[in-house]
Amino acid sequence: MAATASVSMAGERMKLARLLLRRKTAMIGLIILVVLVLAAALAPWITSYAPQKLSIVNRLKPPSAAHWFGTDEFGRDVFTRAVYGGRLSLFVGFSVVILSSVLGIVLGLVAGFFRSADKVVARVIDAMMAFPDILLAISLVAALGPSLVNVIVALGIVYTPRLARIVRASTLVIRELPFVEAARALGVSTWRIVTAHVLRNLWSPILVQGTFIFAYAILAEAGLSFLGVGVSPEIPTWGTMINAGQQYMGSADWMMVFPGLAIVLSVVSLQMVGDGLRDILDPRLRKEL
Question: What positions does the domain ABC transmembrane type-1 occupy (predicted)?
Answer without folding.
Answer: 90-274
